[in-house]
Hints:
Layout lengths: L6 H17 L5 E3 L6 E3 H6 L15 H8 L6 E2 L18 H12 L5 E8 L2 E8 L10 H17 L3 E7 L7 H5 L1 H14 L4 E9 L1 H4 L8 E4 L10 H8 L10 H6 L5 E2 L2 H16 L21
Parallel strand pairs: 5-6, 6-7, 7-8, 8-9
Antiparallel strand pairs: 1-2, 3-4, 4-5
Helix pairs in contact: 5-7
Amino acid sequence: xxxxxxxxxxxxxxxxxxxLRKQTSENLWIKCPETGELVFQKDVEANLxxxxxxxxxxxxxxxxxxxxxxxxxxxxxxPLPDVPVDPLRFRDxxxxxxxLKEARAMTGLQDAVKVARGTLEGIPVTVAVQDFxxxxxxxxxxxxxxIITAAEAAISHRTPLILFACGGGMRMQEGVLSLMQMPxxxxxxxxxxxxxxxxxxxxxxxxxxxxxxSYAMLGDVHLAEPxxxxxxxxxxxxxxxxxxxxxxxxxxxxxxxxxxxxxxxVPRADMRAxxxxxxGLLTRRPAAKAASVVKKPILAAAAK
Length: 304
């Protein structure tokens, strides 16, 4: 015999569940990848997406990176050229075009690299940012065109170019067409150097594969975020090849700085001021101190 429904089970419980669902956010807490500590999301957000206790630097989106780098209200997105979509008609478990559609819907980006112009403490700059959230920041034809466009924009407007490198390497779905972007972006960097304009590279977690083997290691100054993984092949592959145990912290930013591959390891909170100081020195233009360029804490809306 079925139990008759009453007002407690039919009305009160569903309303309580709905109320709790509205008040509890799935993203209320963030778990630190290093320590496993649960941290209140708003505290991490106010700390530029760095875990306050462990100082672990979380990966952030291209929009967030531009928001915390450029002066308020100065950002102007640079239009990027269209490239052929899925020229090889590649398919693994999914069609490549479907993967692109999913990545674009999730990130709001056309591809892994976003380019913008603006000012950094009053100094005009061009900034290119790789977004790991778009197919692990992998580098294909669209990303290559974006970096070349960034270099051309910097040359056209006589500004330094700042590149935030991040990604797992070349995009296998585009095969040799992806690999061709390595020499193409290298030529773009050489043109920038011929124009005697500064090229600053910030290596973030992770910067690997063909990205490291080309434009990410051609900067005038190389900065890195703490703990960033930087290298070409993975540590396990290297160990299997040379049949030796690699040192502790191998391929991390601090290790590379000790061995001369990175000039500076800079916490995210100090990155903006450091880049402004370098741009001012290299362009002989002092950074502004006006209140109009002071940054506010990163906004959640920047993640969209």
